[in-house]
């Protein structure tokens, strides 16, 4: 029979050092784990989707009016060209004798 005092904890479980309360688990840090300079290494897909969602709303709020304005400018220029053409056609019709 193996005594519980002789039992060594598995490598992923820390040994009880008397400072931790029972039931509290604090894993040992892995020595070969690389740290990311940007802080994205430990993020999940859900965290990244939330980040994209948070950034997408202000970007959309900023870009939609800009594109709308550009489209309105193009429509206005097309209408102006059309009005100029109509005015020129009317001038030619009044200048021509029947």
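Q: What amino acid sequence fits the structure above?
A:
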């Amino acid at each position: 029979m193996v005594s519980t005092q002789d039992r060594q904890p598995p490598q992923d479980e820390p040994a009880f050092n008397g400072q931790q309360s029972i039931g509290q688990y604090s894993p040992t840090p892995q020595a070969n784990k690389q740290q990311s300079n940007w802080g994205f290494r430990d993020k999940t897909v859900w965290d990244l989707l939330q980040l994209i969602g948070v950034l997408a709303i202000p970007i959309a709020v900023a870009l939609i009016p800009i594109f709308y304005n550009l489209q309105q400018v193009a429509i206005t220029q097309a209408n102006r060209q059309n009005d100029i053409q109509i005015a020129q056609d009317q001038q030619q019709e009044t200048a021509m004798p029947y």
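Q: And what stands out in the fold?
A: The longest helix spans residues 45-95.
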